[in-house]
Amino acid sequence: MKTEVTSKYKMKTEVTLEQARRVLEVIDCGLVSGLGNPELGEMCVEAAVCFAFGEPHSAYPKCVHENLADLKVELNDARWSNNEARTAGMRRLAIAQLGTAGTLDPKAFRAALRIEGTRRLTPLCLRVAAAIARLNGDEKQAEKTEKIATQCEAGLSPDEAQAAIYGLHANPNAYANAYADTTGFANAYANVVTYATTYANAVTYGYAYTNAVTNAYAYANAYANAYTNAPNPDNYAKGKDDLLRALADAIVAALRICNSPGIALMDKLIPSKT
Predict the structure, then answer these.
(1) Residue 5 β-bridge partners
(2) Long-range contact set of residues 158-162: C-beta below 8 Å, sequence gap at least 24
(3) pTM of the prediction?
(4) How far apart are CA 51 and CA 56, in angstroms?
(5) Residue 5 — pLDDT band, cuts 50, 70, 90?
(6) C-beta of residue 203 within 8 angstroms of C-beta of residue 110
(7) How far from 15 is each of 31, 63, 138, 211, CA to CA, in Å?
(8) Residues 266, 273: Cα–Cα separation, whole Å
(9) What is the tens place of the pLDDT at every residue in 38-48?
(10) C-alpha distances in angstroms, 157 versus 144, 173, 186, 242?
(11) Cα-Cα-Cα-Cα dihedral of 150, 152, 153, 154, to 10°?
């Protein structure tokens, strides 16, 4: 299988199934935070792609759109709970991105990611917010919050999601810059709702959506407290990894909407997940 790609780096780049399989083999040796070294198991996701293609050690593979590479680097370098979680979370996206240089429409991609982020990230935030509300004794608010989460998964538009989320709290912006309070559930609730609003209202993937990388730490605090009566390291790690994986999955889904050449390669190599 061969996909021809017009690139800013070369007049023509060909991405074959064999090359994509080699990328996956390198990825599965493990990923690390930071550019790393050109050795198996010691590279970031984009350096691993360069390695597989025999390119110089870099975070900018020739077959990947530079804006997407920037986003991938930030996601790769987020504080996943460990390198195994980082590798598992990034492997599908590593293949889906192949062939985007010269073919990806950034405007269309931003629009698609806004939709997929609302469908995949926003419900996670809202369900943690609902759990916090329930711990705080507000079952009615929890039910309202969960209802919006379900609607987002079913295809509620980003603008509709934003409006619905704003209606959950009198002043969701009050906590826009505050991290989730590990003891005050009311503050944590408002903060997580604000995150959900951020994702639903995102207009550029270079800013609002990559905030998921930063917000994952605060989100993990809220998650750990929403599902236990005391801070729990295992829950903290799960919450953080879940949000980062959701962002990776949203990017893959957005690339599918944009007919990225790498999606066909990914479907052949990793067919088990849609």
Answers:
(1) 13
(2) 158/114, 158/115, 158/117, 158/118, 158/200, 158/201, 158/202, 159/200, 161/118, 161/122, 161/196, 161/200, 162/197, 162/200, 162/201
(3) 0.81
(4) 7
(5) very low
(6) yes
(7) 22, 8, 53, 31
(8) 10
(9) 999 999 999 99
(10) 17, 21, 27, 22
(11) 90
For the segment 181-216, what is each residue's pLDDT rounded down to a tens digit?
Answer: 333 444 455 555 565 666 555 544 344 444 555 566
Q: At a CB cut-off of 8 Å and minimum separation 6, what does 55 contact? A: 61, 62
| Residue type at 222 in one-letter notation | A
**What is the DSSP annotation of the chain?**
-EEEE--SSSS-EEEEHHHHHHHHHHHTT-B-SSSB-SSTTSB-HHHHHHHHTT--S-S--TTS-HHHHHHHHHHHTS--SSHHHHHHHHHHHHHHTTT-TTT--HHHHHHHHHHHHHHHTHHHHHHHHHHHHHHTT-HHHHHHHHHHHHHHHTT--HHHHHHHHHTTSS-GGGGTTPPPPSS-HHHHHHHHHHHHHHHHT---TTTTTTHHHHHHHHHHHHHHHHTSSS--HHHHHHHHHHHHHHHHHHHHHHHHHTT-HHHHHHHHHSTT--
Structure tokens at 4: 């021809």
Gyration radius from the chain CA atoms:
19
